[in-house]
Amino acid sequence: MTRKLFGTDGIRGTANTEPMTAETALRLAMAAGRQFRRGEHRHRVVIGKDTRLSGYLIEPALTAGFIAMGMDVILVGPMPTPAVAMLTRNLRADIGVMVSASHNPYADNGIKLFGPDGYKLSDDIEATIERQMDSDMSADLAAPDRLGRAQRLEDAPGRYIEYVKNTFPKGASLDRLKIVVDCAHGAAYRVAPTLLWELGAEVVPMGVDPNGFNINDGCGATSIGALCDMVVAHGADLGIAVDGDADRLAIVDEKGEVVDGDQMMALIARDWRRTDRLRGGGVVATVMSNLGLERCLGEIGLKLVRTQVGDRYVVEHMRQHDFNVGGEQSGHIILSDYNSTGDGLIAALQVLAVLVRTNKPVSEAARLFTPLPQLLRNVRINGGAPLDDRAVKQAISDGEKKLGKNGRLLIRKSGTEPLIRVMAEGTDDRLVGSVVDNIVDALERVGG
Predict the structure, then answer these.
(1) Residue 54 is a catalytic residue
(2) Which of 22, 154, 209, 414 makes a 20 to 30 Å CA pair with 313?
(3) Is pLDDT of 448 > 60?
């Protein structure tokens, strides 16, 4: 079954237009409720959100849909996506829901669903829910005396903070570190600074004043220029940034230089191998990860397994083949010993644990390989099928021939935005830039 509403990371779109309307959210909750209503026990749903204004639209609609299906709703308010996954498991809920468009601007919103095990739903289950949304669900509505109830879980932030703290090595402390933390005015604005402070760090907070409109606006893991400047200005040891729902992480070293997800995965994998904690014989990443990561891991006898883009596909491979370290170059780091989805704060603590143990600066400890020149450009599309255009196909073919065996080319449609992503990698940075420019020009001529 194919999916129309769900992309690579749930449902996403402009708030108050389809599919991100109250009506669609209501029907989604009803369909998901019917899908996961099993047995006669009182069913539970955990709903979290980030700080977007439209959360006040989507959250009540979802709540009404689940209540109509006889499910009790636990509202946790603004909380990171990985916190919702964790609470879904720990509260023995039947479904977890996160209302967020992750790194997108405030005008967008999205809905992510988790099963009772805290994992994102499979493509097949999402397709089944979509099909049920188009059906008549009136026969499945709860009787008046079986309607669900809604309640707010006031100690949700404290539960999550304690959970994350317990992933840090026992007896270790951050008391020698000065950390700038950028919360993107998003879901982690309360928990991230508190977590780091309780572990002993001197914390300089950024992006902790959400107003419904400023989420990801010039801040957070996808816009880290201000964080780089703050780290240098405050003489900090490092900077940590998460995105709007805190499942993505970026780190800045003491010089104001960025450490990407590939370097973090290499650092964690090498450290976990040292302590005999690494499973699967390597790391699971996507086709976007740099060839430098693959070579770095190979030098110490580890393998890099690549999946299609999307942390859900990384997680699926990790579960099927018993890996416990995986992620994306963009900073979605999945450490399955601790959580079932990408968790920016847990990943940050694993990096910090290495810094504390080795007493090395970030610029030294987290620079394990020199990346091959890699360039990614996004082309916004206005409908149509530009990848089927003859001139675009020719530009792609020419690019592949020019890069040859010393590089690679990846062209794909975004699963979350109306974009085509063009990525090239090779040993010659000028050639890489030329190849990307030619393909982007061709795309823009036919529909960008």
Answers:
(1) no
(2) 22
(3) no
